Amino acid sequence: MKDGDFVLIDFVGRIKLTNEIFDLTVEEEAKKENIYNKDQKYEPAFVIIGARMIVPGVDKQLLGMNVGDEKTFDVPVKEAFGPRDPRLIKILNINQFYKNKINPVPNTFVQIEGHTAKVQSVSGGRVRTDFNSPLAGKDLIYKVKIVSQITDPKEKIERILGQYRMGFRSVEVKEKTATISSDKKMPEMLEKMITDIVKKWVKEVEKVTYIAPKEEKTRK
Among 18, 176, 177, 212, which lies 20 to 30 A Cα-Cα from 153? Predict the structure, then answer.
């Protein structure tokens, strides 16, 4: 595989120090490790190699692999979620939590200031909150298998739309133009984002057109 290839991968990610699984796509592995969740959908993950859709250490390992290849490898902190940043530990007024209907309980994760954070302690109306990723500062181990490669430009665009949870009715690619039909008009900002991603990574496409009921939008 090379940069720009569209692939579906199965993986199991573990924290190296404890061997604890923090994420996986394989249902059989989840059942084997007694961490199966019936509400979770187990299926291969979509990745554009080189597009920073996964941690750098995994992205790098995919290069040179082929469909069907499987490998297990270490991912050091600097190629995973990076070191812990003390600047991301903040002291917040407890009223910031109350106004968002959040009860800050130590060792729980909350959504605050538009980000996920871990409540470390609560004292005197002040909440010590850690905005670092739970995996920051940790060496990881990944087992990865390339399940398949996506080469059809239409499916590439469908996968991109699905990745960003963009609803659509159909995608058509003809003469280097992609036409995306949807039930309602996408916001201008999302149209631009999708257009930029498609034109960067789907080499068969030079123009993206959007069609919604009673209106048509084209981006060159």
Answer: 212
Rounded CA-CA distance 164/57 in Å is 23
pLDDT at residue 215, rounded to an integer: 52
- pLDDT tens profile 6-17: 999 999 999 999
pTM comes to 0.84
Q: Are 156 and 163 in contact, with CB atoms under 8 Å apart?
A: no
- Give the closest residue to 119 by CA, choosing from 111, 136, 86, 128: 128
What residues have CB less than 8 Å from 24, skipping those under 6 apart?
11, 12, 13, 30, 42
Residues constituting the chain: 220
188-201 vs 153-163: helix crossing angle, rounded to 10: 140
Strands of the sheet containing 109-112, edge to edge, are 89-93, 126-130, 115-123, 109-112
| CATH architecture designation of domain 152-220 | 2-Layer Sandwich (3.30)
CATH topology of domain 86-130: Thrombin, subunit H (2.40.10)
Using alpha carbons, select from 29, 21, 26 the residue that is nearest to residue 45.
26
Residue 94 near residue 126 (C-beta atoms within 8 A) = yes
**Domain 1-82+138-151: which CATH number of 1.10.3720.10, 3.30.1490.100, 3.10.50.40, 3.30.160.620:** 3.10.50.40
- Side-chain half-sphere exposure of 168, counting CA atoms within 13 A: 25
SS3 content of the chain, % helix, strand, coil (to 5): 20, 35, 40
